[in-house]
Fold this protein.
Amino acid sequence: MDQQPQNTTEEALNAKFEARIAAGETIEPKDWMPERYRTQLIRMMSQHAHSEVVGMLPEGNWITRAPSLKREMVLISKVQDEAGHGLYIYCGTETLGVDRAELVDQLLSGRAKYSSIFNYPTLTWADMGVIGWFVDGAAIVNQTVLAKASYGPYARAMIRICKEENFHKKQGYEIIATLAKGTPEQKAMAQGAVNRWWWPSLMMLGPSDTNSPNTAELMRWRVKRKTNDELRQRFIDLTVPQADAVGLTLPDPDLKFNPETQHYDFGAINWDEFWQVVKGNGPCNRERLQARRDAHENGRWVREAAEAYAAKHSSPAQSAA
Ligand SMILES: [Fe+2]
Ligand SMILES: [Fe+2]
């Protein structure tokens, strides 16, 4: 019978929490929240942080091969921004009472997921353009909505991050616009990158609503405010006119404006490919994880030195000396 008062308290707290969510209030780290809300947020935010960090790899691969000093400087700063996004979201995740070392361990051991898109290779310079245009473009569509998420630290992180993502998208689109009006070879390179990245970019917005087990719960808690299919449609509607404007073709014969729905209809997405990539069998999954493991190992001495320094300066004997 000891159970009774505890359950009642839990129920009352839960009812209050749901009422706050329904009223559009923001939940802050010290507020009471259901355990499931906390763990779902940890899963979602840490996946997001991992994606920012792993997302540096495909583009980092081209920093030393950028075609000019200006392009190199822009790409370096873009990749640095992604590192910052990762750190920012890891910090946000830590407000939920989880240690960053545990999150990193989940990534490196292959237990945590990150965005499927970063498991594709970057084969030409035009891929830098298309990644900014499509991948950062899709990220903006997703993150603009997350900026209204019910969990305060996540929502606030998104506001700042979206500002930088807008710059990322513009720099990518500008690379593509430049190539598209260049020599026939440059235009072909841009078209080739568009052809390779279009479908994976649509998949990046997540499985279809009929196959997305977490969506309903996250929508109810106002962590997600739009479903994956709604976000995908928005990305497509924004991107088709941008492709037209630079004279490039999106590789989907079924892509057509539908005057009734006021949206673009599009062809079937190859979900088998998506699930294969998510399960670790994409073109670069192993390479990406290995690169992160190597980076973690190579940074060990920095973490150890920082810890030794912090310990030395926090000991009273040392401070007195
Ligand atoms: Fe980012
Ligand atoms: Fe970005």
About this structure: The pocket of fe (ii) ion (ligand 2) is lined by residues 82, 136, 139, 165, 168 (CB under 6 Å).
